[in-house]
Design brief:
Helix content is about 70%, strand content about 0%.
Length: about 475
Amino acid sequence: MVSFFFCFIGCHKHRTSPARQSSAKMLENNVGMGEESSHDLHKYSKVSIVPLVFLIFYEVSGGPFGVEDSVQAAGPLLALIGFLVFALIWSVPEALITAEMGTMFPENGGYVVWVSSALGPFWGFQQGWVKWLSGVIDNALYPVLFLDYLKSAIPALESGLPRTIAVLVLTAILTYLNYRGLTIVGWVAILLGVFSLLPFIVMGLIAIPEIEPSRWLIVDLGTVNWSLYLNTLFWNLNYWDSISTLTGEVENPSKTLPKALSYALIMVLLGYIFPLLTGTGAIPVDRELWSDGYFADIAKILGGVWLRTWVLAAAALSNMGMFVAEMSSDSFQLLGMAEIGMLPSFFAKRSRYGTPLTGILFSASGVILLSWLSFQEIVAAENYLYCFGMIMEFIAFVKLRFQHPNLPRPYKIPFGNIGAILICIPPTVLILVVLALASLKIMAISIAAAVVGLVLQPCVEYMKKKRWYDFSGSFDNPDCQYASV
């Protein structure tokens, strides 16, 4: 699968002909992706490939923390097979689509620009709303999980005022890192990523004498908890498109983005499969014990208290990495929406470090307001909203392929338009399954949240018409005719 992905990168880069250059220039002028969206970005440091790989890694994964439920739900064999199969039918299509669309529209805003180009600004706004809300809900999880790892050492953090103060302080510190710039965020992601993955390499080496491959083959189809199994796999293998919202900050995105996505895919898969092989192969499998945090217990069994402490520290710090990566995407998405006139221009204002100050503050406020939700409610609600956004992305991808086949695509998925349709079918089926498995409560909450976007967009347009706020850009694009859905 990985070699298949690399083949796409190596064999399907496209030079831009003079005709395509003209088309690209026209698209820039009409979509608002030219002078309005650049804003003298040369004075800010661009993100290079190594920090970008780790930012994607933290957008999607952050390490094997949370994959334990897959073994509890289905046993070792299905857990291992599941991550490989789901990577093939979900992660690879989403990463490939992100590579093509992200290099076609190398601007902040990412999937909002894609959907707006294909379906019109109304649906682009809806995409921005559900994806931003999904990201903020997801980010509300990480300060809480970080404190959950610390409460064993500091019991006062378990509840009450000390926990509330700790959530606020931690959110403020991590928000400040985002304010200081993507360069700092990227290098923090690298340091945290190395620290978080190293204990599992050490644990794997220690476990070699204890490995019994027959344990990997344990399966009992009659006891599989399919809902927990599918949700765990989906939770740990999505969000590849999040990096698109800050593509405008990437150094040479036409080459860097596809490579970074492929390297991150390898890192994510190894970060899941290697610890699962170690944990299920080195000690007898008791599925009931495989829940969040069980890797720390395995580390203690195999290496002692020092390795358990390292794994716990890695898990806690991994949540910090996921927080700063997610907030970067969420805040630059709002900046990108402001640059094309979907939000007031104050969302496009940058700090002296080049970061979207207003977007960071809005995203941090959302995190604080939602931090009271339970882990299960956060995961289910964000998954549901995320699915809405992915459906619109798939429609936009296919529609642009058919209606505008000659627009320049520095990176293009092979096999033509038929291949574009086929690559969307497996993840679409998976989305429908995830939506069907949601509880009525989550359905109602998520649909109500999506409806807010349907009301919010006309309100923003009314504010623009009345000139209550300044809007710095506009999304007028005769090259990509808006479709009514």
